[in-house]
Amino acid sequence: MELHGITKRFPGVVANSDIHITVHKGTVHALCGENGAGKSTLMKILYGMQKPDEGTITVDGVQAAFAGPADAIARGIGMVHQHFMLADNFTVLENVVLGAENLYGIGSKARKKIVEISEAYGLGVRPDVLVEDLGVADRQRVEILKVLYRGARILILDEPTAVLVPQEVDALFENLRELKAEGLTVIFISHKLGEVLSVADEITVIRRGTTVGTADPAATTSKQLAELMVGSELPSPETRDSTVTDRPMLDVAGLRLTATDPDGAIRDVLDDITFTIHQGEVLGIAGVEGNGQTELIEALMGLRDPDGGAITLDGADISHAPTRKRRERGIGYVPEDRHRHGLLLEAPLWENRILGHVTERPNSRGGLLSPRAAREDTTRIVREYDVRTPGIEVTAASLSGGNQQKLIVGREMSHAPKLLIAAHPTRGVDVGAQAQIWDQIREARREGLAVLLVSADLDELIGLSDTLRVMYRGRLVADADPATITPEELGSAMTGAATGHLEAHGTEGSDGADDAAAPAPGAPEAAETTETTEVPEPAPKAAPPKDDAR
After folding, report:
1. For residue 258, what are the contacts with CB-CB under 8 A and spacing of at least 6?
2. Whose CA is closest to 275, among 292, 300, 251?
3. Among 95, 328, 402, 488, which residue's Cβ finds the most Cβ atoms within 10 Å?
4. What are phi and psi of 472, to 5 degrees?
5. In 3D, which of 81, 228, 68 has the Cα closest to residue 147?
6. Which CATH number goes with the domain that contains 531?
7. What is the pLDDT of residues 371-410, one digit of tens each?
8. Residue 363's domain spans which residues?
């Protein structure tokens, strides 16, 4: 594939300007750039979702013009989006054939083809499993299989490792090597420069909407790549000073949440969750997604009703308080899914700024909403958090994912919260924005902010946390020391393997690391080594959060 002079303009902004890229067959070609650099727009052009104003696209030596994604698919281009596009209540087979029923039907012929593709590329996909029962890594493999099923020879992967633990990243990279060996081509978009350097055959860097260079991974360092992207060194989340006080800010005692299985059996989604976060402390929760982290956060925010236990914020019992009261008492919230739970995508930025804080200053004065004050404060957030936008009247949907995230973080930090619940706060942001968000959290921590941090970025978890807890099948099973644990050891513990740097949370009288990753009742036995183990099935899902609470 060759791109020559690709230019795309929107009102008030040039997203792509004279972009030139050559992608060779049978290679992994990485595309890097800071948030707002134009990567997403370029990928939408490649996939037929946008039309360029200028420039040409050549596929296999023949010029291509895409009226829509169907045209791109017909030319052998498939895209796996950062936010998966799967129907949870459908099986893998139903998701794969949806919209492509004309290829192999919907029965045995389709199942046979799915199995053939899965085995050929080492995807390990089972056609009859419900997608809602799959972990995030398996869902990603289903998305890859979907585009291969449609005959894609060029795969666009948008931030494919954003939600994976190290062992899952290794498995994905092995899948990519299988794809390369069969002559397929991968365009790999990522902010994780170490991963880019390890998997890519060639790297193109986009800055401010235009290509600034192509790098050879064998002759390039992360530092050089970061400087090429954003003009600064690679940031580190490491926190060296301690600001933890003796004052408890959040106490959670015996928190339980149950769910009813399809067969009517009641099982624990959260089982006796107990912890304390002190003023000035960052408590990190590590766990493979689907092990109860989402349900824990939603219970703390009042979006789910727990079946037992108590939640205390700065001495006040908020166990049954509505979400609004918890907000007003000083909880800031960065949700894991910014599109579903953090933004109104079709609303302007200044309206998104007031979400969750309608009753607080400067948004409200004397009980009345103040649009003027909200607009002024949105302008401040855009400036201080470097949100790349032509103005505050544009919709949130018009921003790149990273700039949407910076807007949310700026909004939540602007009310001087006592407690910040941050789920993947730097997911999908570039190295420059990462550094800024980390600095904001560290500065607020120094001023007494307590933070509950959930992240799939293990370097971020280890670097920012004062205390680390491992969550497995709805239980907090072990403590880890951020000063000694490695990402590999933490990743192993998250999948159920024991390591020597973990302190067990077993029953009373437990005396050692044998219980370090003790599973919940009925779970499979933990592995005995630090080798990668099979990722556990996710904890049973609780009922959906209350709509009125949102």
Report:
1. 266, 267, 268, 269, 307, 542
2. 251
3. 402
4. -145, 120
5. 81
6. 3.40.50.300
7. 888 899 999 999 988 888 889 999 998 887 778 988 999 9
8. 339-415
Same domain for 61 and 189, yes or no, is yes
Using an 8 Å Cβ cutoff, are 260 and 252 in contact? no
DSSP for 40-64, please give it. Answer: HHHHHHHTTSS--SEEEEEETTEEE
Segments in 150-230 forming alpha helices (H): 166-181, 193-199, 222-230
What's the pLDDT at 514?
37
Phi, psi of 477 (to 5 degrees): -100, -15
267 and 364: one domain?
Answer: no
Q: Verify that 208 and 225 share a domain, yes or no.
A: yes
550 and 472, same structural domain?
yes
Q: Which of 180, 205, 230 is the last residue of a domain?
A: 230
- Distance CA(102)–CA(17), nearest Å, equals 39
Q: What is the 3-state secondary structure (H, E, C) of 362-383?
A: CCEECCEECHHHHHHHHHHHHH
Q: What's the pTM? A: 0.64
Handedness of CA 406, 335, 521, 283 (dihedral sign): positive
Place of tokens 């594939």: 1
Q: Evaluate the CA torsion angle 400, 401, 405, 408 in order and state its sign.
A: positive
DSSP per-residue codes, 405-453: HHHHHHHHHTT--SEEEEESTTTT--HHHHHHHHHHHHHHHHTT-EEEE
Q: By the 8 A CB rule, do 484 and 503 touch?
A: no
Total tally of structural domains belonging to the chain: 3
- Structural tokens at position 440: 């904001």
| Residue 472 three-state SS | strand
Query: What does the pLDDT look like over 157-174, one tens digit per residue?
Result: 887 776 666 777 787 788
Residues 481 and 504 in one domain: yes
Q: What Rg, from alpha-carbon coordinates, does the chain have?
A: 24
- Specify the higher pLDDT residue, 431 or 4: 4
Q: Which of 415, 445, 460 is a domain's end point?
A: 415
Amino acid identity at 424: H
Question: Is residue 373 located within the same domain as residue 450?
Answer: no
Is the same domain home to 226 and 243? Answer: no
Instruction: Note whether 405 and 337 are within 8 A (CB).
Output: no
Let me know whether 205 and 144 are in one domain: yes
362 contacts 376 by C-beta, under 8 angstroms: yes
